[in-house]
Amino acid sequence: MKFTDCEKGLEVLNAEDRARFDQMVLPHLDAAFNLAVWILSSRTDAEDVTQEAMLRAFRFFQGFYGGDVRAWLLQIVRNTCYTWLEKNRRMKMTDEFDEQLHMQSSTTPESIAIAGDDRERLTRALEKLPPRFREIVVLRELEGCSYKEIAAITSIPIGTVMSSLSRARRQLQSALTTTAEGEAKHEL
User: Fold this and answer.
1) Whole-model pTM over 0.85
2) CA distance 144 to 150
3) pLDDT of 150-178, one tens digit each?
């Protein structure tokens, strides 16, 4: 007996839709992974969740009728991350983001040390933010999303995005200032 893909429960795109998916969605794979890393605080978990999100995007791509494909994909990634967190994760996230992938090779050892320290402080400060604030900061500052895109991705009103971003930036600034002051006192 011969089974088709649909009979097996698999939704498969035709060749034209696959090409559209590859052209429209795959260029945003790095942004999807980056968002997952910052929400989950674990590269390994982010790889799994990003893969799951891309499968969901592939499966439901026929239902995408235009608009901002990046916002659509990041919303799928965000929802997949939070679903995964509810099922698998303890509340305290302790895994660190590996910044080695983002280092520039044309810098001096001194600038690498200074930048590494700054990145480490920023990473620690970002990890102290509540997950909802952290995702808004990551979407705006690291992924360059507009307020409108963030509102679409997070399913919250644009005014709430702006006020949450403002609060997140204040908390981030406070955490960075407190860390810098603590390090300065420690050096004395």
Assistant:
1) no
2) 10
3) 999 999 999 999 999 999 999 888 888 87
